[in-house]
Amino acid sequence: MENFMIGFLTLALAHFMALLSPGVDFFIILSNSSKYGKLGGILTSTGIAFANLFYILLALFGISLIKENQLIFATIKILGSIYLLYIGFLLLKSKKRELFGKKIEKKKTKKDIFKYFSMGFFSAILNPKNSIFYFTMFSISIQNDTSFSIQIFYAAWMFFAVLLWDIFIVYLVTNKKSKIFLENYSNYIEKSSGFILIIIAILINI
Fold this sequence. Notes:
Keywords: Cell membrane, Membrane, Transmembrane, Transmembrane helix
Protein name: Lysine transporter LysE
InterPro entries: LeuE-type
Distance between the termini: 20 Å
Oligomer: single chain
Shape: globular
GO molecular function, one term: amino acid transmembrane transporter activity
Main location: membrane
Radius of gyration: 18 Å
Helix content: over 70%
């Protein structure tokens, strides 16, 4: 039980820190929420979440197949730590950006539901960093004695974390006060996230 809690907390914290940093997904949610309103943003978020689920399951079954090989598994874990360090340093070096510089007028024509969903899905599925990221997440949280049911729980947690966080972003970017907060503090959030990811990368190999 203790190993499960350590693995879960490590995974959940590292995953959430990565979600906090504005990336490709954030900007497509920002764009679609501005153009098509909350419904467009939520459907885009759903598409992004399902694309992430594809990579989550791919990483889960990939790790499950090789975790019995100690050498390969240890190598992947080290590479995963290096990847987290890389992300962490990029976030620490990030400069303040103008998130809401361009005001996009909402289009009055109704768009097909599939279009909103597919815009989010293809944006996330065509981002190769997602596969690397989830492979890293499972390599640092799954041990040889981690049961398959716990692994499925990890996968479900990350899927719903992405979905709910992205929907939360939709509500933030369609609210004036929240937009001001994000504009002012997004860079501090990125740097804090980078610092925590670096600490996690170091601790998982001690």
